[in-house]
From TrEMBL:
Protein name: DMT family transporter
PANTHER family attached to this UniProt entry: CONSERVED INTEGRAL MEMBRANE ALANINE VALINE AND LEUCINE RICH PROTEIN-RELATED
Swiss-Prot/TrEMBL keywords: Membrane, Transmembrane, Transmembrane helix
Taxonomic lineage of the native organism: Bacteria, Bacillati, Actinomycetota, Actinomycetes, Kitasatosporales
Keyword field contains rRNA-binding: no
Species per Swiss-Prot/TrEMBL record: Streptomyces montanus
NCBIfam families per the UniProt record, alphabetical: DMT_1
TM helices/strands, residue ranges: 52-81, 102-120, 132-152, 164-184, 196-214
Keyword Membrane recorded: yes
Length: 299
């Protein structure tokens, strides 16, 4: 168990630094590259961004090690601690200190996520259970959510825009997690069975699209506005889709459901607190002024 705890915390720290480095590189790119694969092509040439990707890979290694020695219900909440590392570190790199509102928002999101994950604890399910119609309904609902989030992002500004794009990113990555579970399950039947199913190729598309949306969210606003929403949306969508498609079950009843709802309320309140924080808004302006080209208008 101590190995699981240490490995999970190491994964959280690596994810935190990886997010900070990726967001710092992405925020320097012009707005014209947002939601375009040109953004990824340009970032792939940035050593800072590549270092962030390398740290993310290392973090997945630590996460795998933690899961080998401890249950998901212990590991996942500890990894959520990345927010406590990442948000202050991002502000520190800009020579800013978080105020009470930003700190409370960050802690509320991290604690709320941990509480909701621990109390819900999804389990069971069969990745082979859903038929094509069920898959199409879920993918259609995810697509509608992404479209609504990106449409809202066009009407928003500052940290709120970054959070809207991050909502789309979290929805895609949550669905990607479900597709990954299906693909891993098919691997048990051999490589041929895996390559003959459409979910394998949908996984590739979702992974590429999710990466683009994550980097676009990082480009549009401070890390606090993007990472918090992604970290909240991804497991929420994955659990919802998992229970809908695979028949997974979550713990319910009193007081478990009460703790889950309380956790979700804390996450929502924390995100609103961060997006409305004057310090986060000032950090956004600082990043945009630093990364904007001389002839590019102020957003």
């Amino acid at each position: 168990m101590p190995i699981a705890v240490l490995a999970a915390l190491a994964a959280g720290a690596c994810f935190a630094v990886a997010g900070v480095l990726q967001q710092r590189a992405a925020s320097a790119r012009p707005d014209t590259e947002s939601l375009s694969f040109r953004l990824l092509f340009r970032l792939a040439r940035e050593p800072l961004w590549l270092t962030g990707i390398g740290l993310a890979v290392l973090a997945y290694g630590f996460q795998s090690l933690a899961l080998a020695f401890g249950p998901l219900s212990l590991v996942q909440p500890l990894i959520v601690a990345e927010l406590i590392f990442a948000v202050p570190l991002s502000a520190r790199l800009h020579r800013m200190r978080l105020g009470a509102q930003a700190w409370l928002g960050t802690l509320a999101v991290a604690a709320g996520l941990a509480l909701a994950l621990v109390s819900a604890r999804p389990h069971g399910g069969d990745p082979d259970a859903p038929d094509l119609v069920s898959w199409l309904l879920v993918l259609g609902a995810t697509g509608a959510l992404v479209a609504c989030a990106l449409t809202a992002a066009r009407a928003l500004h500052g940290p709120w825009r970054a959070s809207a794009v991050a909502l789309a990113a979290g929805a895609v990555m949550g669905t990607q997690s479900v597709l990954l579970a299906t693909t891993v399950d098919r691997l048990k039947q051999g490589l041929g069975a895996t390559l003959s199913t459409w979910q394998t190729y949908a996984l590739v598309v979702a992974s590429a699209g999710g990466l683009l949306l994550i980097q676009s969210a990082f480009q549009q606003g401070p890390l606090a506005a993007g990472m918090t929403v992604i970290d909240a949306t991804e497991p929420a969508v994955a659990i919802t889709v998992g229970t809908t498609l695979f028949g997974e079950t979550i713990h319910s009843g009193w007081p478990v459901t009460g703790f889950t709802v309380l956790g979700l309320v804390m996450v929502t309140a924390g995100i609103v607190s961060l997006d409305s924080s004057p310090q986060i808004a000032a950090l956004h302006r600082m990043e945009r002024d630093t990364g904007r080209a001389p002839d590019e208008p102020r957003p």
